[in-house]
Amino acid sequence: MSSVIDAHFHLWQVGRHGFEWPTPDLTAIYRDFASSDLCAAAGGALHGAVVVQSQPSDADTQWLLRLAETDPLIMGVVGWTDLSAPDAAARVDGLALQPKLKGLRPMLQGLPDDNWILRPDVAPALSAMQTAGLVFDALVFTRHLPAIEAVAQRYPDLRIVIDHAAKPPIATTQTQPEATREWTQTMTAIARQPNVVCKLSGLFTEMHIDQPLHEAAPYVAHLLTVFGPQRLLFGSDWPVVRLNGDWQKWRHWLEDQLNPLTSSERQAIFFTNAKRIYDLQGVQ
């Protein structure tokens, strides 16, 4: 496999820049993480990466943008701002002036209203994102996908990236097959929207620690069926992947799942799709 663009990793400093998560009980990831940690985990495979906000804080986004100014590994930043704020459209416009700000992620999975993104007070921010050409990263569960589908229809020029494949219910594959059926049907529906793509990321952390890895394979296969290799992106979710695996384990397992594809299709998932979707300038 040639070099990789990791379309999803995180950086944080405990107690700084709006830090709220991870909590101390998550010992594998409760410490500071720098881009050098990602480089060490990935070895020589990494060409560059997109860093994604981890805190619902403007301070976190500004810190990531400062890092990106001098860190050649960081090709793009997916930040955060309050999309429901009265001045949200102006905030979006201001952030869009930052060359490495490629998208925004409102962390929908943690909000009490599953349809929050459809609220009228959020509409000006989404319109501003569409106009500015920013990507909307959707951190969601299956239950949020109908709302994301509605956003995709309302804003057909807004590029939407579903993070972590909407966190499929892999852990309950055997005990609650109806949850898997719901995820399958809902993902099939949203994949019909041409402005929606999906990250192959975060699947290991949706599994039990001792769960056989082959139980994740049908979920990857379904994503390939409904999205196709031109609308899927590799992301490690580093360092969260450390909760159940590591960067190399996830990458190599995913490579095995994608082995039936052509070399150009695999290259799309591991490199060129991220370059295109996040408009990563200067990437060869």
TrEMBL record:
Keywords on record: Hydrolase
Positions of the Amidohydrolase-related domain: 5-280
Q: Which InterPro entries does the UniProt record give?
A: Amidohydro-rel (IPR006680), Metal_Hydrolase (IPR032466), Metallo-dep_Lactonases (IPR052350)
UniProt xrefs under Pfam families: Amidohydro_2
Record bears the keyword Ribonucleoprotein: no
Q: Which GO terms describe its molecular function?
A: hydrolase activity
Q: Which domain of life is it from?
A: Bacteria
What parts of the sequence cross the membrane?
none
Query: Which family would the database say this protein is a member of?
Result: Belongs to the metallo-dependent hydrolases superfamily.
Mind telling me what this protein is named?
Answer: Amidohydrolase 2
